Amino acid sequence: MVYLMKAFTVITLSLVLPFWAMSAWAHAPLLDCYVEAEQIKCEAGFSDGTSAEGRKIMVLDAANKLLLQGVLDKTGTLMFKPPAGEYHVTFEGGEGHSVTLYSAQIS
Amino acid sequence: MMFTVRSSRFSVCAAFMTVLMAFAPSAMAHFQMLYVEESALERGGAISMEMVFTHPFSGGPTMAMGQPRVFHVVSQRGDEAKPVTTDLREYLQPIQWQGVGNQAPAYQAVIPREVMRSLGDYVFTLEPEPYLEKEEDKYIQQFTKLVMNVGGVPGNWHQPQGLPAEIQPLNKPYANWVGGVFRGVVLSQGQPVPFAEIEVEYVNHAPDVKNQAFAIAPSVVAPHPAYGNMSIRADANGVFEIGLPRAGWWGVCALHVGPVTQHLGKPLSQDAVLWIQAKDMR
After folding, report:
1. Which of A46, A56, B143, B217 could form a disulfide with A92 if both were Cys (CB 3.0 to 4.6 A apart)?
2. Is A8 an 8 Å CB contact of chain B?
3. Distance in angstroms (rounded) separating the CA atoms of residues B258 and B279
4. Domain ranges (residues) in chain A
5. Diameter of chain B measured on Cα atoms
6. Are B249 and B196 in contact (CB under 8 A)?
7. Are the CB atoms for A33 and A50 separated by under 8 Å?
8. What are the pLDDT digits (tens) for B181-216?
9. Contact: A46, B78; criterion CB under 8 Å
């Protein structure tokens, strides 16, 4: 039960603080996604200004099934068609640092 | 009886001096405001930006600002990205701003989401038409910068914008704790200005964007005229450093640093203004 509560807390926190919770790190990954021209446009970068070019973005459904994976271009951008149903986007910032944004937060 | 009359004259004189002392700084320190409520946005979106030519510590008198000649933003996401310049003049609309004691023509820009949606830094530059200061029979033109950020990814906040008169920030203008210090360099055509004359003012009457007015009541009361408009000098390298003792907006204005000194047959002062936002650590 305690374990479940911890898991719940972690999930809740990750929902509330999706993209800047780790900004206290010297080299924190940052991510934002929004709707543009009926596509989802994701932009990623780092808090020290380092480029995110070549880093991975993963789009997963509510059951954590990988829906698509892409590589950020030289502007740190990736565009894709919005999946049906709920999904979340994870930016792999390296060294175990990642940041996730949920579809409910993308508009 | 004589004593009473003298005493009364003295009281009138003292009261007059008090009023003069209270308003004397405002006669000196013009600041072109480029104002937003929040300069560090978590996520991008449409914003409203106000342009008011005033004396921010006293909340007035407010002047009729010159038509913006240049109003643009240079945005950049990350150190290596190419900066993108967007002309914003199409979003300008004239407004009337109610300062403390008077109302004056000002401008507002409603900048759409597509301009401000991406992560990164946004360096706004405003170059108004020179303003004729009739009291001093001279023109004032303030090259004004406001630096914003979306989402915490830095970019070009520290890059000079190639203005004739400019303050180059050495700290992020949008990320300052109260009690911290802010540093910058005064530039004239890109070159540091040794011992540049600088004025620093706190926006002491809270801007009310909805009603396009300053709050009547000040946030703080200056204990002496020298506290309202603080005059400092840059060092031999044109570098200055100020403390930020209170949350809100702080304006820094470097006087007479631009190369053009005449306009329509009268003296012209080309000044450089930069806006800094400070937040409480809590």
Report:
1. A56
2. no
3. 31
4. 28-105
5. 80
6. no
7. no
8. 999 999 999 999 999 999 999 999 999 999 999 999
9. yes
- The answer to whether B246 and B115 are in contact (CB under 8 A) is no
Judging contacts by C-beta atoms under 8 Å, the chain B residues touching residue A50 are 78-79
Torsions phi, psi for B139 (to 5 deg): -100, 150
CATH tag for A28-105 (out of 2.60.40.1120, 2.60.40.1930, 3.50.50.60, 3.90.550.10):
2.60.40.1930
Cβ-defined contact of B80 to A30 (cutoff 8 Å): no
pLDDT digits (tens, 9 = 90+) for B14-57: 443 344 334 444 345 899 999 999 999 999 999 999 999 999 99
Of B42, B78, B117, the CB nearest to A76: B78
Report the candidate in B216, B274, B219 with the shortest Cα–Cα distance to residue B35: B274
Residue B150's nearest CA partner among A19, A74, A105 is A19
Rg of chain B over all Cα atoms, to the nearest angstrom: 20
* The pLDDT of residue A11 is above 60: no
Chain A (68-107) residues lying within 8 Å, Cβ to Cβ, of chain B: 75-76
Pairing of strands B181-188, B165-169: antiparallel
Average pLDDT, chain B: 92
